[in-house]
C-alpha cells in the first residue's frame, strides 16, 4: 500500500459562459493589465492511501461524480506517489 497525492483540475467547458472569469478580466484591465479569455476554475488536492489502480479508480469516481458537474465542467487529474518520511 502506498500514499498518493491527487491533483484535480476542474474547468468550465468552452461552450459555458464564465461570468467570474469576465469579472477577473475587467478587474485586471482596471489595474492596467491586459488579459483576454480569462477562465476561472477549481483546483483540489487529496491525499489517499491504497494500491495505485484502486486509488486511480477512486479519484476518477470522485472527480466525475462529486467534484465536478459533467454537464458544465471538464475535469482532469494527476496522481503522484508521496515519499515516505525516513525511507
Could you walk me through the main structural features you see in this protein, from its secondary elements to its overall organization?
This protein is an alpha+beta fold and 87 residues long. The chain has one domain (2-81): Phosphoribosylformylglycinamidine synthase subunit PurS (Mth169, Chain: A, 2-Layer Sandwich), CATH 3.30.1280. The chain has 2 helices and 3 strands. The protein has helices at residues 19-30, 52-65, and strands spanning 2-12, 42-50, 73-81. The longest helix has 14 residues, at 52-65. The two termini are 15 Å apart.
State the main characteristics.
87 residues; 30% helix; Mth169, Chain: A; alpha+beta
CA radius of gyration: 17 Å
Number of strands: 3
Structural class: alpha+beta
Please, what is the oligomeric state?
A: single chain
Please identify, by name, the CATH architecture.
2-Layer Sandwich
Count of discrete structural domains? 1
Percentage of residues in DSSP E strands: 25-35%
Give the SSE layout.
Elements: E1 2-12, H1 19-30, E2 42-50, H2 52-65, E3 73-81
Antiparallel strand pairs: 1-2, 1-3
Amino acid at each position: 500500500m502506498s500514499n498518493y497525492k491527487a491533483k484535480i483540475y476542474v474547468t468550465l467547458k468552452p461552450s459555458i459562459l464564465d461570468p467570474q472569469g469576465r469579472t477577473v478580466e475587467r478587474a485586471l484591465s482596471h489595474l492596467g493589465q491586459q488579459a483576454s479569455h480569462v477562465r476561472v476554475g477549481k483546483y483540489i488536492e487529496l491525499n489517499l492511501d491504497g494500491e495505485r489502480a484502486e486509488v486511480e479508480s477512486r479519484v476518477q469516481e470522485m472527480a466525475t461524480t462529486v467534484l465536478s458537474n459533467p454537464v458544465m465542467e471538464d475535469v482532469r487529474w494527476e496522481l503522484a506517489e508521496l515519499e515516505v518520511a525516513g525511507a
